[in-house]
Amino acid sequence: MSRLILLVLLLLLLYTILRYLIKGVLVYRKISGKESGPEELVQDPYCQTYIPRRTAVRKRVEGRDYYFCNKECLRKFLEEKKS
């Protein structure tokens, strides 16, 4: 009987320690995941909409970087650039 009680107490202690460690990791991820400032927006040269730089479709044309909201705008821009 005493072994069972000791085992339950050990498991409870292990559960408490693991819960504390996991909670600390989640809080650290939440703090470190925050950006230091507002997200930079770039303008699509074809449709003139503003989009976050990190989600934009990037294409280097004639040594200059252009950012597009989707591949369709990129395709239309390149077609227009050819003519």
Descriptive notes:
The protein has 83 residues and is an alpha+beta fold. The protein is 52% helix and 19% strand. The chain has helices at 2-32, 71-82, and strands at 41-43, 50-52, 57-61, 64-68. Strand 3 and strand 4 (64-68) form a beta hairpin. The longest helix has 31 residues, at 2-32. It is rod-shaped.
Instruction: Note the main sheet.
Output: 2 strands, antiparallel
Radius of gyration: 26 Å
Q: What do we call the CATH topology of the largest domain?
A: Ribosomal Protein L24e, Chain: T
Percent of residues in helical segments?
40-55%
CATH classification class of the largest domain: Mainly Beta
| Spatial shape | rod-shaped
Query: SS-based structural class?
Result: alpha+beta
CATH-defined architecture of the largest domain: Roll
Roughly what is the average pLDDT, rounded to an integer? 87
Give the N-terminus to C-terminus distance in angstroms.
87 Å
**How big a fraction of the residues is strand?**
15-25%
Low-pLDDT regions: none
Helix run count: 2
Total number of beta strands: 4
Q: How would you spell out the order of helices and strands? A: HEEEEH
| Domains (count) | 2
User: Widest sheet: strand order?
Assistant: 1-2
